[in-house]
Amino acid sequence: MRKLFVIVSVLLLVAFALQFVLAAVGAFTKPAGDGSYALHSVNGTVIIPVLTLLTILFAALARAPGRLIGLTILPFGLVVVQALTAVLANGSTDAAGVSSPFGLTIAGLHAVNGIIAVHVVVGILRAARELATPAPADAIGVTVREGEPV
What we know:
By secondary structure, this protein is mainly α. It is built from 4 helices and no strands.
């Protein structure tokens, strides 16, 4: 299960990285239309939430420490915040459909939240790899006290 925890964590990180690429595709699509961000939306509303839930599940099945399981829950919460910021940003337009300063600010927070989510997933992946890598059988724990020669 620990190897699967690592694999799902890698897939989640790839999905988040791909999300930034898909956002750029939407931003640079000419002419821009309602479908410009379609792939970004599908990845963000289907793929990433499923992978976050699988990451939580595999962390629990791998018998990860409680703190790590708690950390795996954080990306799911951040995905919920992403959805809320996207809805707020898209809904904050005037009668002509022009973005308001409030909507643009929320859109910026959408991007910042995505960056935070990536950093959290990197931490999860590091911890998952550490959990999946067994300590050598002949390893001996050594405590060195400050001031003592090594």
